[in-house]
């Protein structure tokens, strides 16, 4: 085992709506890095803004500012931004034409917008101010790809909105194919992409017609190269897989998908998860050139389905929640800790350094940030009648945009500028 980095470590409009809806609907469904990935002083980098931001932070309060390379970006608190100096949200919902109804909570009728105004404050340092141009400079001539389930699509859309306003109208495009969604930035010869592979390995949930989450998933734990062929030579790869692992035992296929469910075995969820991640790790080690590509793995995006875990016995899932769980409180929202530990273990055992985006805990606080009844399952907004039945209809998996995934991207941005 290698030392573990101390990481904090053209749509046809209608089709697109249906397709996105399908992607999302189907999906109700970690930086102790491996060794300190050396990162140059920001002053040698093209990112002036980072230094400015860190210095300002020093002036404003007595918080001791650790050099970013020592800072655990994922331990901290949510700080509410009020007044004129607020920096969040990083964009306005109505200004980002690429958002779908799945995430436009205000447009869909959400009465409060407080969830947009929280800033993540690590305990030991300040996050650099997000600069869209600086991210685009990093991406010049490059491809960045999110790979995984609809939570990663949620994050991809967030990143598109975080940068798109600095690109002139005719110099950007958004296109969808059944597996890959691509945002192209012409002048930079750059792309921000999403690749659908909810289990990373092959499954019967992969084809577009199977993404509604109604079929019991069948997995092929060793099969990854069919998907993986599409990830080769990408410069930034951000993987996730969690919300589809929702059965205590998973069905693992021994034959071929077209044989139907005839030849499968039931495998303990955690055993299957580990096997899938090992296939993924092997693919990464065999196919990724660490001199070209930075690899990230996002830890579990939490759900807020059991409000009883949050001492709010009258609550209904995440419905009607308008504030995060208070800073530093003790709580348990039901994240699958076994799977989380398994992901950490597999990543620690890898020879190739993988940046662990440890977003789970910081996101667990954000019971206020889900799309809830202001989502559009199956591409349709909920009817008034459905809205009045949050037990059944509230989506407490996905997140409103602007919102929490923007913070994940700020963390990703910070690490991208370190490496
Ligand atoms: C940093 O900022 C200064 C002044 O704002 C500018 O002249 C310089 O080109 C910038 N450096 C980089 C690397 O962007
Ligand atoms: C992720 O962050 C949480 C919150 O700070 C921390 O408790 C946990 O140990 C971290 N996990 C890893 C693997 O770094
Ligand atoms: C956490 O503390 C910050 C100030 O340190 C405060 O602005 C914020 O409201 C607190 N967060 C929550 C969720 O109460
Ligand atoms: C554009 O970027 C791709 C990699 O994403 C690269 O292969 C290609 O050579 C670049 N084209 C130009 C004109 O720079
Ligand atoms: C990465 O670059 C270093 C130094 O340029 C070189 O020694 C090493 O062999 C390269 N690694 C790979 C996998 O190409
Ligand atoms: C929603 O929450 C607010 C306080 O946050 C409360 O006053 C209101 O009664 C709640 N609505 C319902 C229908 O429970």
TrEMBL record:
What membrane topology is given? Single-pass membrane protein
UniProt keywords (A-Z) are: Membrane, Signal-anchor, Transmembrane, Transmembrane helix
Does this UniProt record's set of keywords contain Membrane?
yes
Trichome birefringence-like N-terminal domain: which residues?
69-125
Q: Which residues form a coiled coil?
A: none
The cross-references to InterPro entries, in alphabetical order and at most eight, read: TBL (IPR029962), TBL_C (IPR026057), TBL_N (IPR025846)
* Localization in the cell: Membrane
Return the Pfam families for the record.
PC-Esterase, PMR5N
Record-annotated Trichome birefringence-like C-terminal domain positions? 127-414
Q: What is its main location?
A: membrane
**What residues form the membrane-spanning segments?**
12-33
Stated family: Belongs to the PC-esterase family. TBL subfamily.
Question: PANTHER family annotated for this entry?
Answer: PROTEIN TRICHOME BIREFRINGENCE-LIKE 30 (PTHR32285:SF157), PROTEIN TRICHOME BIREFRINGENCE-LIKE 9-RELATED (PTHR32285)
Q: What is this protein called?
A: Trichome birefringence-like N-terminal domain-containing protein
The species is Hibiscus sabdariffa (roselle)
């Amino acid at each position: 085992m290698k030392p573990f980095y101390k990481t904090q470590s053209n749509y046809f409009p209608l089709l697109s709506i249906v397709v996105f809806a399908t992607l999302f609907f189907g999906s109700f469904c970690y930086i102790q890095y491996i060794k300190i990935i050396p990162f140059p002083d920001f002053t040698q980098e093209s990112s002036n803004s980072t230094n400015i931001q860190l210095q300002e932070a020093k002036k404003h309060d007595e918080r001791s500012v650790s050099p970013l390379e020592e800072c655990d970006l994922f331990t901290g608190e949510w700080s509410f931004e009020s007044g004129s100096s607020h920096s969040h949200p990083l964009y306005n919902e109505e200004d980002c034409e690429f958002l779908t109804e799945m995430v436009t909570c205000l447009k869909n009728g959400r009465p409060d917008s407080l969830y947009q105004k929280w800033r993540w404050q690590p305990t030991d340092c300040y996050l650099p101010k997000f600069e869209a141009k600086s991210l685009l400079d990093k991406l010049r001539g490059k491809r960045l790809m999110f790979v995984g389930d609809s939570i990663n699509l949620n994050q991809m859309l967030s990143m598109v909105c975080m940068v798109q306003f600095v690109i002139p109208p005719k110099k950007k495009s958004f296109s969808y194919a059944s597996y890959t969604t691509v945002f192209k930035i012409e002048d930079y010869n750059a792309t921000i992409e999403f690749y659908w592979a909810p289990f990373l390995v092959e499954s019967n949930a992969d084809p577009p017609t199977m993404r509604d989450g109604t079929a019991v998933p069948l997995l092929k734990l060793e099969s990854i190269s069919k998907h993986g062929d599409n990830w080769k030579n990408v410069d930034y790869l951000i993987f996730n897989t969690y919300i589809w692992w929702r059965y205590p035992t998973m069905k693992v296929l021994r034959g071929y998908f077209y044989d139907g469910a005839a030849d499968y075995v039931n495998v303990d969820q955690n055993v299957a998860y580990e096997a899938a991640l090992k296939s993924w790790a092997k693919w990464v080690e065999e196919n990724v050139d660490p001199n070209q590509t930075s690899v990230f793995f996002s830890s579990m995006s939490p759900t807020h389905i059991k409000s009883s875990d949050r001492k709010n016995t009258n609550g209904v899932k995440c419905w009607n929640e308008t504030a995060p769980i208070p800073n530093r409180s003790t709580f348990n929202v039901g994240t699958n800790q076994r799977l989380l530990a398994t992901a950490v273990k597999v990543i620690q055992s890898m020879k190739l350094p993988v940046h662990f985006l440890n977003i789970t805990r910081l996101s667990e606080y954000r019971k206020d940030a889900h799309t809830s009844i202001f989502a559009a399952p199956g591409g349709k907004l909920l009817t008034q009648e459905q809205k009045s039945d949050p037990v059944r209809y509230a989506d407490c998996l996905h997140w409103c945009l602007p919102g929490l995934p923007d913070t994940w991207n700020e963390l990703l941005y910070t690490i991208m500028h370190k490496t």
